[in-house]
What does this fold into?
Amino acid sequence: MDLRFTPEEEAFRTEVRAFLAAELPADIRENVLLGRRLRKDDVVRWQKILFRHGWGAGMWPTRFGGAGWSVVQQHIFDEEGAAAGAPGQLPFALRMVAPVLMTFATPAQQAYFLPRILSGQDWWCQGYSEPGAGSDLASLRTSAVRDGDHYVVNGQKTWNTLGQYADWIFCLVRTSSEGRAQQGISFLLIDMKTPGVSVRPIVMLDGEHEINDIFFADVRVPVANLVGEENKGWTYAKFLLEHERTNNAGIGNCKRELARLKQIAAGQRAGGRPLIEDQRFRDRITQVELELMALEITNLRVLSKAHREAQPAGPEVSLLKIRGSEIIQRLAELQMQALGHDALPYVREGLDAGWTPDPLLSQHFPAYAPPLSGRYFNYRKTSIYAGSNEIQKNIIAKMILGL
Amino acid sequence: MDLRFTPEEEAFRTEVRAFLAAELPADIRENVLLGRRLRKDDVVRWQKILFRHGWGAGMWPTRFGGAGWSVVQQHIFDEEGAAAGAPGQLPFALRMVAPVLMTFATPAQQAYFLPRILSGQDWWCQGYSEPGAGSDLASLRTSAVRDGDHYVVNGQKTWNTLGQYADWIFCLVRTSSEGRAQQGISFLLIDMKTPGVSVRPIVMLDGEHEINDIFFADVRVPVANLVGEENKGWTYAKFLLEHERTNNAGIGNCKRELARLKQIAAGQRAGGRPLIEDQRFRDRITQVELELMALEITNLRVLSKAHREAQPAGPEVSLLKIRGSEIIQRLAELQMQALGHDALPYVREGLDAGWTPDPLLSQHFPAYAPPLSGRYFNYRKTSIYAGSNEIQKNIIAKMILGL
Amino acid sequence: MDFRYNDEQLAMQATLQRFIERDYGFTERRALAASASGFSTAAWTQYAQLGLLALPLPQQFDGLGGGAFDVMVVMEQVGRGLLLEPYLTTVVLCAGLVADAAPPAMQQALLPQVAAAQCKLALAAYEPASRYELAQVATTATRSTAGWQLSGFKAVVLDAPSADAFIVSAREAEGDGLSLFLVPRTAAGLTVSSYPTQSGARAGDVQLAKVSVGADALIGTVGGGLAPLEKAVDVAIAALCAEALGIMSALNQATLAYLKTRKQFGVAIGAFQALQHRMADMYIAEEQARSMAIIAADRVAGADAAARRRAVAAAKAYIGQAARQVGQEAVQLHGGMGVVDELIVSHYFKRLSMIEQTFGDTDYHLARFAQAAPVP
Amino acid sequence: MDFRYNDEQLAMQATLQRFIERDYGFTERRALAASASGFSTAAWTQYAQLGLLALPLPQQFDGLGGGAFDVMVVMEQVGRGLLLEPYLTTVVLCAGLVADAAPPAMQQALLPQVAAAQCKLALAAYEPASRYELAQVATTATRSTAGWQLSGFKAVVLDAPSADAFIVSAREAEGDGLSLFLVPRTAAGLTVSSYPTQSGARAGDVQLAKVSVGADALIGTVGGGLAPLEKAVDVAIAALCAEALGIMSALNQATLAYLKTRKQFGVAIGAFQALQHRMADMYIAEEQARSMAIIAADRVAGADAAARRRAVAAAKAYIGQAARQVGQEAVQLHGGMGVVDELIVSHYFKRLSMIEQTFGDTDYHLARFAQAAPVP
It folds into this structure.
């Protein structure tokens, strides 16, 4: 047993910290730390900065322009980035489509798409779920029918995250209805500017536009945009899933939000004292803090095993997903609860970059307050998306426990 | 909405209270209130006292010698009895076999058995569960084969409560293996003194002998001891189940144990103060107290509906069983927790009537201490027996929610 | 003992159910929440016509003399329909306080107006530093020749933007008791800032800069305002518990229906036992919450202040937790459909969350219960 | 970073697993618990032969110089086998305290004896009124010509009946610091009453009536006993966490096996999704508990007392709750088979319950964590 990072890893942490201190723009940092709405520009700007530093894609192999980091280095980078208020890099391009492209795409596809991802030039989104195919993804019905050098795509994708900004979407589409449901699925890359693609916003419960329905009406997609073989898409999708989930406990974000919770509770007053000195509230913080202490080690155990074996982590990542989502939800809940009746106002403009409360409101409504209730609401999604926690428990029961 | 008892009910409560004050023997009361082992004699003596007062069987119809109480009166009696430290009347005779006899037995069977139950002359136990048939009762295999005027019974019953004291056992036995599993079952009364009946104690996790395996080896049972029709036993068993469960929240016991918990916590000291003033511990008490406040009203809602409709309560009794068992378990848990390291000693003689600690031990180990840990262990059974809480949730899902 | 609503209460329940179905569907409700005022003045008038506004008011002031269980019936439907109008604030809380503690002249002036939908009231009690403590008040009341001069700042005053008058708590000097004053919205020196709340209705901050009111603006006695204020808030909390109950009931109904219709892997998801058991837990939570709401309604009607405080604290703390469980589980079992704005489920969830933060959260009422509970 | 046991640790683990399988089966263990001493002296000698008793002791005193992770390996198996011998008390707690704070002469006199199974020690620290507070000590130490005279009463001294000597905490006068003394069992004026514990091993009360000990009986400095005592107890708590972990792991294994074999309604009950999800929760609890036990073992080895206190409090509070969940669920999922004496399941459950009540329960360590945690 050795819980220490290696000297090389500690040196890397120092390097990351110095980089963040020097390069992370103050306005982006403020938006992240206050939980405000991030604009497309924030995310893209940060990706370009990372790219210029050679860190556009930490864990990609160097031959594709990545930094060639180990999972432990990536963990350190994520943790330091979260603490410093760096935006998380969106997974859709870097951690989802890219590994599929690297493994299954043609050299031409790789040469075209990967550099554009790395540099922040292309924004990708995911076209998996459909109205009738959520957890049961294999029942998807969006069809791609071959017509000469094109597929003609028709159907609807839903629960699409941030597709309103996207240049490209990677889709699972049905190219055959023969055999098992899994067998007729293909993995297709679609330019969002293609005629027939339309995006309909789905407003989330916090009033924000974060997800979409994507409609395909006779969308003509060049056959050249098929990844791998036709009808083998399910294989690529499973491969993607394995890679997506290696690092999904979100320890860095949880640690940042725990610290913020304590700051907020230190600032709020109850019964004439700082709320954090209220034993009940303090114990509620403690309970989630203990869970997070444990999960941080559990996460490192999973990572160090994956690192050692040079394999994607196994089904134990389901544990990380379940507890990680529960912790971030609970932190958001306690942040809201800390506000007392100041959780009630819905001050939408308070989510905008640079907002300062008007003098009246500022008597009780500090800059950190406006996003908190909405974020509590919004974070209910974390136990639903990326494989609901029920699905994760099914996975544990089947893959780990053999039930 | 009217939460008050009627004046008649209040008068009845006064009468019960006066009766308990006058008639409940002090030694029995002490054993109950300290959670000590109850001997057969304690239970029988109390039944005889009740019988002399005309209260041997509160809810039986008067034509069978019962007091003809309403469910509300029975509730009041149970609640006052529990508070005063009266032993609960065992359900096996009064609430289980008796309603079956009243409804399905011959006049001769009724005339013989019911008065002996009422007067405390006969002790009954239940022969339902078998090693391979617990929740799935219909799969039972104890056989009764007709041989002239007798059935010859062979098999094993388990989870039999207090059968070591019993004069009679009512059994579900298999008289036919044709048709659905439920169809070949009969309801048989067996004299425990019959040759071939043997009782093997099962020691519980608290070290106490409370349950048994009962073995039947070529036990000859007169056909006259069959209740109702052969192969109709499942019907009677279901009828019994409905009657057994009308009043199973155990509110009276829970209220008594809550009061005891507070007393214990007031006597124990933590950090130089009474433990009950420790906010954490106090909040734990509060949480179970709130649950009990709610359950008391929920129970009354169920009872008053049953009272009004003159019907056994419906599947909502599953709610009472679930929460009632959780509450009594939690109370036992907190009582143990209140003891601090005094939860560790296993002072078995401390469960005996009249025990007083030796002078050394009494410095930290009061008379109430010895039974507490064992009872915490023992009460894990309450969410398992009488239809496990999982079965109760299945019932709610199916019968109430229609899932 | 009888736990049924009586015939009049059932009639009121049916009336409100019809009203919600016909006139206050989810689409209409969303439009109202997005409108300038955040509620429907037409509906408010209808409530007056239905007798809702008069329901708990004393009969001598055009009221119907209803009790806490009558209010409970209404509030369950307020929850179910997510009604946005200031019923709780104006009728239950403020008019209740006026009926309980105000001088007869003020009662005569206000209560018939409330019953007739001519007057809306709001309670300006909480302050930036007070959290949920009604007694923690920095707003000052200074005696003047004409009466009183009030100065201070009240935060998150529910339904402030539409109120015609405010009940304001203040004290003469530190250490003195609270006094309560009726302050018309038009009083010079009174400023209202307004904002929507997370659950749709409006609230605002009220600034009082040397606001003059007459001697007749006093509600109750000088320095004796805390007791009636606390009682009125307890009555409102009991009503809020009923609102939460109505929502929990509606959420359970919606979730159960979803479990029965939504298919995954070829079967209705309600066939999965893990979900069945969680739905059973939600059912239990609702039933237990109903029992607690009944206790609270029963005790706020009684004369025993300690019993009232204890029951209301118990109900608010218990229902806060039950509502959180039911709200979060309903969202979870709805999957993605639970977190979108276009289904009522998420709106129910948000309202439940805000109810927990109103008039004291679970922790606050756990503390209150611990103080109020008799230790045997 | 490496979370694997090293080869020596794995060898020790395998050795203990074989020992339990061959010599310490459930039947043997029950007989031992029912025997007069409540444990096996033969096993104790075997532990010495296996190097277990020497494991964490310093090398200059015949020890093997092992660390907290070596102890963790052993204690997991102590849990799994429900071993009754006073390993935790003698080797980890008391010998650890002697190695840390006693004068060299005492170390030389005791530690090789402990390693050779020639001496068993017990800690007489808690008192009737102290609950879990090590600092709350009424036992007095009075200076005498020969050394010290001790008077007082120590409650629930674990493994007292078999101890050859006790480490006793006392103070000169109220307000003074604690001092620690080594008191031989044979000292005049020392009385031990003994009783079995709920989980099988023995404990007892120790009365000290003017017990004289020499000046050389002092461990550490006069008045400076609390710090080494608290540290030794923290080391023992980390070990206790590992014991709990071993039990949780064994319970999960047993429950999983039961779910796969026990049939109801014609199928293995492990096919029911509600039970699958609860088993998944138990798996998660075990994994998280393992992480916490690792943190505790890591930090007790460190020099930072605040970090040690914080980590140990966190681990004990967390594992207390996780163990309760796993213990109760294992019993529940075993149904009737979970509550009978003849299966090991209930014995695991009882031991977990008693571990929670030892060296401070969950609430105690939540409080300790809150005091220790740095507020940012």
User: Anything to note?
Assistant: Chain B touches chain A through three residues (CB under 8 Å).
